[in-house]
Amino acid sequence: MTSCDSFLDTKSYNQINSGDAFKTVDDVKAARNGLYYDLGSYRFCGNYVIAIGDFAGDISVADGSSGHFVNINNYAISDATPELSDVWQYGYKIVNNSTKIINGIDALLDNPETTEAQKNELNLYKAESYGLRALAYFHLVNIFGLPYGVDSNPHGGLVLMDKNAIEPEQNVSRSSVAETYSQILSDIDNSLAAYKLTPSKVNQFYFNRAAVYALKARTMLYMENYSEAITAAQESLDLRVVKEMKKADYLDMWKSLTISDEDIFTIAKTSDDNLSSNSLNTLYGSYGGHVSPGLVGDFTSTDYRLSLIDTTASSNHPMKFDGIESSAATSNIPQFRVSEMKLIIAEASAHLGLLDDARAALFFTAQRDSQITSVDDLPSTQADLLAFIAKERKRELFQEGQRYYDARRTGEKLTIANGKYTNFDVRKFVYPIPADEINAGYQCEQNENWSDNLPK
What we know:
- By secondary structure, this protein is mainly alpha-helical.
- It contains 16 helices and 8 strands.
- It has a single domain (10-453), classed as Serine Threonine Protein Phosphatase 5, Tetratricopeptide repeat, CATH 1.25.40.390.
- Strands 1-3 form a two-stranded antiparallel ribbon. A two-stranded antiparallel ribbon has the order 2-6. The protein has a two-stranded antiparallel ribbon with strand order 4-5.
- The radius of gyration is 21 Å and the shape is globular.
């Protein structure tokens, strides 16, 4: 890719030729499998999107001697930062290919020779494609756009594709953040509509119905639509059929490649497809990434989740991605978990003043601290409850890439870069659109003056 390549110029990276790619259901299935491969790439949700969520926040600390993710951790970034360029490229790869798959599916559904069994399979793939496109949009807008409700810039969101993929050398323009969120919700609705048309089901290694509702719940939380966030999270939990995990099972699930009772949607990895040196495992392993003393201090000694951090190491080594016994580089990568849905219900209920509901949902994760034996041990006021939930999200979701995005949506000011910068208002910060995209000449707008809000 040259210095003036646009990632939106489909000639640059798109393997799907929409003119003749989808002649059969098997063609669609192969392309759908490609979406999952791209999603699980280290350039997107297999590493970088997740790592940005912790290393740009106050959870994780990069090791300067290895150099890996130090630029993100220290905010020593530019519009040529490779990790940001890769996220943009692979996010739009998923968006563009999803759009072409959906169009290919519609053509096959309109074909009178397509059987009912084939239509069931096609509607399943259509539901997944809409869901994955919504997920890609969600991550992209939260990296390259300001938080929902903060930015009135009509071009502060994403370049959107609805019915048609972007053609090579086509001029583009970014939408607003609000318009991007509307597209995400539209894609979610279309995914759920397609799921209603098929009896086919998929497990938690695929973007199943519960995962679509989980994405809706997270999206609604970010939009501060708390009633809808609660409803969607509960729908996700009802579909997943929640089972509380015992301590041993919870701790052991991080060392297993099987689907756990916590998983709603997880990226599956194997010893043959484990991202190796580009994995989160390696980032937190031989590359020296570790968690901050501040995170460790948020745990009590009676919280068994603290045993997922080796505090006896020279630095605080987190162990969610330490791999399996036969392969230290191999771990599944959770994208949505049952515990996150419970925490969404807790936070949204607290904002609505439904404090009993909030405590009931919160207890699901909080009881992992043995000092908390009932809801009566949880805070009783709205302010204290919301403060507890913010820390509980850190305790439960550390190393899973949510902290930076949480602080941006809530306005919490952070101490980052291992204490180098304090009181950083991350809510005002947005990453630049990659220079390759801007310089390609297809009129994609830059985030103006983005560097003015770097930490100082």
